[in-house]
Amino acid sequence: MRSKKNLETEGRRNSRTKATELHRTTWKILMVFKEKSVKICGNLWLNILVLSFFSGVFAKNEYFYRINQEWHSSEVFTYCVLPGQKVEIEIINLPSDKEMLKQMKDRRVAYHKENRATEEISFLPIEWTAPQEPGLYPLGALDFLPQNTNLTSRRLLNIIVMIPPEKVKNGRLNGFLIGHYPKNKMPLGFIEVTEENKDTYISEHFQLKDFLCPQNSGFPQYLVLDMKLVEKLEILIKKLNSEGYPCSKFAILSGYRTPYYNRSRPGRARESRHMYGEAADIFVDDLPKDGMMDDLNGDGQVNMKDAEIIAKATKELNDLGILPGGYAAYPATKQHGPFVQVDTRGYSVTWRTTRRKTYSHLKGKRK
After folding, report:
1. What are the DSSP calls for 34-89, one per residue?
2. Residue 51, Cβ density class (10 Å: 0-12 exposed, 13-18 middle, ≥19 buried)
3. pLDDT band for position 335 (50/70/90)?
4. What is the DSSP letter of 242?
5. Rounded distance between C-alpha atoms, residue 285 and residue 45, angstroms
6. Are 294 and 286 in contact (CB under 8 A)?
7. How confident is the model over 235-270, as pLDDT tens digits?
8. How far apart are CA 91 and CA 72, in angstroms?
9. Strand locations in 304-359, DSSP E?
10. Whole-number mean pLDDT of the chain?
11. Beta pairing partners, 341
């Protein structure tokens, strides 16, 4: 008689097999769109097709943001700017509601004091000028729409005003040790992370604190983060779940690294993309939550094969031209389990890592 654990494992495997078959069929359709170079509104429709398959976007999402000509459809989205920078925000309703759009054209929304806003903004497009004071400025999407608009989702747009890089003096920013970037290769700006805002969700699954550099320090700390990386991780979560691999959130082994921290660690690239917030070392840690990669393929072992599932999903996104970048699966060590490095360099590339190792679910116990 089969045990309860074996029955659960078999059930997950059968569910994953059905999801994978559906996924492969839909993936073929998406690849046909790519091969025929269907490009409408800067690949908007291709991205909508991908998002609709991965997350049921048409079932629950009725509108999209376009921020400075970039399309976004996440429940929570964050956009980073510098002081004084102008941000053009449009809300696109799909399918188009002409009457609603007509109402929006003349509508103006006053920001409330608690949102730290200082002026009124208008619609289609809304032009918002970032204040000189760095910080977090939350904008509720429903505040932009007519009151009688019937939406099933409540989206949040966070705009973060960063600290300009020239504020770093002698390798420090307000006392926080940054180190020295290569000449003419400074990041666009730094996000100030405080005890009060560290738990802020910058996307549906990720918080500011998830990407902090692990060097010992109190608050405030400073962070460089490419929000395209966060968006890519969100799409990867949806993709893995669509294939039958449970993933509520990626655990981030390494996000941002200051130049000081990066150079203090052996074996790190001198100009690592982690220094620019463009890379993250990730793994799935759902069942069980033990700080190690999950047994994604259900073979009873935790090893590179599990990391390669994430790497393969990343490659497939790259093949579709969705936020392409580097990716590579890394083996476990005595300090951590296997993981995958993902970045947003703009083109697809992978590289060879060291030999495979296999670990059990018990931390540090090698099989």
Report:
1. HHTT--STTTHHHHHHHHHHHH-HHHH--EEEEETTEEE--SEEEEEE-TT-EEEE
2. buried
3. confident
4. H
5. 32
6. yes
7. 999 999 989 999 999 999 999 999 999 998 877 778
8. 10
9. 326-330, 339-343, 349-350, 358-359
10. 76
11. 281, 328
pTM for the full predicted model = 0.77
pLDDT tens track for 211-235: 999 987 789 999 999 999 999 999 9
Q: Which residue's entry shows tokens 């083109």?
A: 347
pLDDT in tens, 344-366: 999 999 998 864 444 333 333 33
Rounded (5°) CA angle 54-56-60:
145
Output the CA–CA distances (angstroms, integers) from residue 342 to 95, 233, 273, in the order listed.
Answer: 34, 8, 10
Q: For the purposes of burial, counting CB atoms within 10 Å of the CB of 189, is it exposed (0-12), middle (13-18) or buried (19 or more)?
A: buried
The partner residues of 349 in beta bridges, in order of sequence, read 326
Distance CA 301, CA 161 (A): 44
d(CA 315, CA 322): 10
Going by C-alpha positions, the residue among 283, 289, 279 that lies closest to residue 336 is 283
Say yes or no to pLDDT of 181 above 50: yes
Q: How many CA atoms are closer than 13 Å to the CA of 136, on its beta-carbon side? A: 20
CA–CA gap between residue 255 and residue 188 (Å, rounded): 17
| Local structure of 300: helix, strand or coil | coil
Alpha carbon distance 50, 56 (integer Å): 9
Encoded tokens for 307: 């990391």
Rg (CA), the chain: 22
Query: Strand 326-330 relative to strand 339-343: parallel, antiparallel, unpaired?
Result: antiparallel
Number of C-beta neighbours around residue 356 at 10 A: 14
* Displacement of CA 160 from its chain's centroid (Å): 15
Query: Can you tell me which residue has the tokens 């030999």?
Result: 355
The one-letter amino acid at 195: E
Q: Minimal CA–CA distance to 133: which of 176, 192, 178, 173?
A: 192
Determine the pLDDT at residue 115. Answer: 38
Type of residue found at 323 = L
